[in-house]
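Severity: low
Component: inverse-folding endpoint
Summary: output formatting inconsistent between runs
Steps to reproduce: submit the following structure tokens with default settings.
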């Protein structure tokens, strides 16, 4: 189910996430990692369809787990997803610090999607802070990271 949710999210099939999530949320004793991932994707999908209050609720459930970030997420992309959630629904300063932590911990990895997501999110925050030159640099790094992948939608975003 984790891979299915990843696929739907990466391909912006948010209606599928909306369709699956309520049933998955009701499952008792889910692994904590899966619950956080589910809350993240459900929040993003709800937000996409303009259901801001519901989205904030699930985003806050995700953000609450930040204290356990190193225990829950040894996958670098998960740390970036949590930072994105913090950026969208929480504290941009905290989101940026989390992105820097992810970069320090996993920056040597050559996974292009990680570098795309990391730099895109850093660019968004820097742009919000009106640091446009630095934001532009992050967006260029994001494009460089994703350019030679098969992720066409991410290339378009970059």
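Observed output (run 2 of 3):
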């Amino acid at each position: 189910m984790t891979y299915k949710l990843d696929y739907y999210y990466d391909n912006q099939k948010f209606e599928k996430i909306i369709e699956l999530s309520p049933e998955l949320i009701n499952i008792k004793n889910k692994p904590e990692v899966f619950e956080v991932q589910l809350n993240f994707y459900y929040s993003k999908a709800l937000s996409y369809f303009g259901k801001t209050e519901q989205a904030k609720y699930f985003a806050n459930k995700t953000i609450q787990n930040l204290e356990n970030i190193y225990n829950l997420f040894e996958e670098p992309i998960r740390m970036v997803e949590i930072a994105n959630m913090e950026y969208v629904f929480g504290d941009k300063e905290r989101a940026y610090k989390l992105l820097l932590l992810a970069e320090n911990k996993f920056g040597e990895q050559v996974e292009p999607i990680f570098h795309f997501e990391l730099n895109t999110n850093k660019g968004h925050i820097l742009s919000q802070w009106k640091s446009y030159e630095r934001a532009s640099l992050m967006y260029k790094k994001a494009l460089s990271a994703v350019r030679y992948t098969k992720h066409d939608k991410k290339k378009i975003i970059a």
